[in-house]
Amino acid sequence: AQTLAFYSILRKPHLNNVPKVSVLDQMGLLIEELGLAQVLDTKVSSLTASELQRLNLACHLLANTEILVLDRPTAHMDIFDTFFLVEFLRQWAGGGTGGLSGRIVILTLQPPTYEIFTMVSRVVLISGGRLMYSGRRRDMLPYFSTADYPCPAYKNPSDYYLDLVTLDDLSAEAMLESSQRIEQLAELFRRRQEPLSDPGPPQALPGKTKVANICSQFTAVFLRQSVYCQPSSLCQWIAHLLLACVLSLVVGAVFWDLPSSDPLLLQADRLGYHYTMMCVVGATLLPLVAISRTHDTDRLAAESDIKDNLYSRFMYIFVATLVSVPASVLVWLGFIIPAYAMTGLYNQGPSSDGFHPYIGYMLVYLCTLQCLVTLLSYLCPGRLSAALLTALVVLGISLVCGFPVHRRDLPITLDTHLAVISPARWILPPLAAREYADDALVASSAQHICKKNQVQRQDIIVQLPCPSPDGVAALSYHGLQLPGALPLSLSYPPYIPPLVLAVACLLLIPAAYIFSSRCYKLKNRRRNKY
Question: Which residues cross the membrane (predicted)?
Fold first, then answer.
């Protein structure tokens, strides 16, 4: 029912062909007449071949067109399903199922049984692109009898005459004999073919099926992405969220209570934590969150719908990206919050107001990287190539952020050009600036007692707290001191460039999708050509 409702939004009948019943009643009639009532609660992927064919037919019948062309609608059906479908099409053409009368159904069939053959009204027999016969079904046997090719008794005419006009390549003699017979029958029909009758006075052509407008396309695709894809899509996002939380807990356990474990900045654990979250563990979630959405069965279904002109590629990308934003943000929050809470970095300094800025910076970074990976994934034909390209891009972004390789050791071109488009290069220095601020370091080092820093007071030896480490010097040592660590000297906050990059990626994603789709079409044309 959801599939029919989806198509009913996107395919509207012409004003002249509006049925007498409502859309819901028409859907109910089609479900009942085509025998789909038993599988209303079944996934489309779980339907049999016969049920899929009947569902596909029901979707096209919703348009209520005057001329219906079907290519092998009875493929993969047994004789009973074939008889049922052909009989239904006869009734539909005569005005059944709440539609109009006087409609035409043109369909191609594999050699049907004799019972199916007697149900059609007109027959067209083609061989090698040439007409062997075209006319009424009841005139077919007398026609071939007059041509000295009568159908034997107890033989299915469909099988016999199809074999009669088929090239036999078992031997050279058989090939020559069959080609001469086909040429003879084609020439005979050309001579006996009756001239076309006078078309009569001009009449209005059958109305075209209405293409859905932008609002209808948005509504249909939004319902498909947010409602019809459930619960499979919801289960997938829940799995991503659980994995993100588990990875976050692992990182938090490794970097547990950083202010107490490294109060003197001797091990650079604070920078190691940020680099791990941004470029190591965070990068492992990107293929799941981004690539899994661009190379799944939903994209294959979307390509089929776009080919049928149900909606545009831009509308599909826009709605799919819009629907995935809340779920993506929830996954990234599940990845950010537990690890940062376990490190204790938010509780440094006289106030604990660093939680929200950190979450904001990390959301900007991860969402920007997700948009970039989504753009690259649409440019790749498969999952493997998309994963390899994503790995190379993330590696380049992480190398120029300033932590794994010092800025002075980077080539000038990488430090000046690639760093500008690296979100990690823009986000890491502001995060490190707060962790290495004087008030934060004083508060964390005050609880640490230096054993060698002793003072004698009235014959009593007292151990004094360690002096506060120099955070500015530590950042300068790693080349992450603001504002020199930023790729460009800007007057606005450092999270603005990643946001601009994310918006640019979102704008380029439709272009990448269209480009990759055109490449697929060109590749298929070359295959068909050769």
Answer: 234-255, 275-293, 314-338, 358-379, 386-405, 495-516
Q: End-to-end alpha-carbon separation of the chain, Å?
A: 42
Residue 225 DSSP label = I
What is the fold, at CATH topology level, of the domain defined by 1-111? Rossmann fold (3.40.50)
Neighbours of 198 (CB within 10 A): 6
* DSSP character string of 472-495: HHHHHHHT--TTTTSSS--SS-TT
The CA–CA distances, whole Å, from 407 to 215, 266, 411, 476 equal 50, 20, 8, 11
Helix (H) or strand (E) holding 123: strand 122-127
CB 390 within 8 A of CB 286: yes
Residue 276 near residue 255 (C-beta atoms within 8 A): yes
Locate the domains of the chain by residue range: 1-111, 121-191, 256-478+493-528
- Lookup result for tokens 């970095």: 345
Residue-by-residue pLDDT tens, the chain, 530 positions: 788 888 888 887 665 555 666 778 888 888 888 888 888 888 887 888 888 888 888 888 887 777 888 888 887 788 888 888 888 888 887 776 555 566 788 888 776 788 888 888 888 888 888 889 988 888 999 999 988 889 888 888 888 888 888 888 888 888 888 888 889 998 988 888 877 677 677 777 666 777 788 888 888 889 888 888 877 788 888 988 999 999 999 999 998 888 777 766 777 788 888 888 888 887 778 777 777 777 777 777 888 888 888 888 888 888 888 888 888 889 999 999 999 989 888 776 555 666 788 888 888 888 888 888 887 777 777 778 888 888 888 888 888 877 888 777 777 777 776 777 778 877 888 888 877 776 666 666 555 556 555 555 566 665 656 666 677 777 777 777 776 666 555 555 655 656 665 666 666 666 655 655 555 555 555 555 44
Cα 419–425–427 angle (5° rounding)? 150
In Å, how far are 129, 262, 303, 510 from 313, measured between CA atoms? 35, 52, 8, 7
